[in-house]
Amino acid sequence: MIRSLATAALCTALALGSAGRADDPPAAPKKLTGDELAKMIAKLSYDSKPLDKTFTQVIMDRAGWRSVLSVSVAADGSLVWFEAALTVASFPEDVPAATWRKLLAKNEELLPTSFTFNKDRKRVYLMHAIPNADVTPAVLRTNLELMDRTIEQTQPVWKLANFVPPVSADGLKQLDALAGKWTATALSDQGKELSAEAAKLSFTFEKDKFSLSKDGKVIRSGQLVAATADGTTRLDRYDTGVSAHGIYKLDGDTLTWCYSTTVRPTKFAADAKTLTTLYVLKRDK
Hints:
Layout: H1 2-19, H2 34-42, E1 47-50, E2 56-62, E3 65-73, E4 79-88, H3 97-110, E5 114-118, E6 123-131, H4 137-153, H5 155-158, H6 169-178, E7 180-189, E8 192-193, H7 195-198, E9 201-206, E10 209-214, E11 217-229, E12 232-238, E13 243-251, E14 254-260, E15 276-283
Antiparallel strand pairs: 1-2, 2-3, 3-4, 4-6, 5-6, 7-8, 7-9, 7-15, 9-10, 10-11, 11-12, 12-13, 13-14, 14-15
């Protein structure tokens, strides 16, 4: 009888111990590692791939819209970051002040999501973060879709046209004179002659817009700004991937255009140190 009671008491004590004491602290929230985050994203049916040990790219396609995001775990493990690389501003001083003000004003509406400008990469980003605590696939999907919608809905404030300086009346006349299709006859990129590559390339200029084609397929497009200053004719290009300051000369149907993503060239020569590109283009007839 005594042994039976002792056995029953021991079983009860073990049961209480396995259940835990009422005053025990709660279990710490689960934190995702970068590898676990990448694997969770891969199961969500989005087009995704690891970019490196830190970042996973997610491409979200839907009717009429496509977002490209990077997702990562903060270095200290405390946050999961979502970011979208938007417009390049290689020359921040070119950007109208009103554009920066609109981005700042929009941040007040979007918090905790916000626009940031990375001065080293010279690029505008949309950033969003959530605590790295018990993140589930459903939570991850919700925040990815939030970023996707926000990128689309805020396009009016981050679109390329907002980051391009206005063109003067004289500049518009210069652009009119440059209108048409131009086929490359020579190309030197950062000091390297690329004659074989040049034959595949052509530009089309229409008012303040340009497109660059390779083997007849458009590979880049953006806006142009022309001006005359310091005795030189300037032709600058802007697109979401690169901005460049340039100079040009027009001799009949031959256009020589030299530009750089770092400083405005002072002579028509390609240079590796200043990342300068030189085109010689022939107008198509």
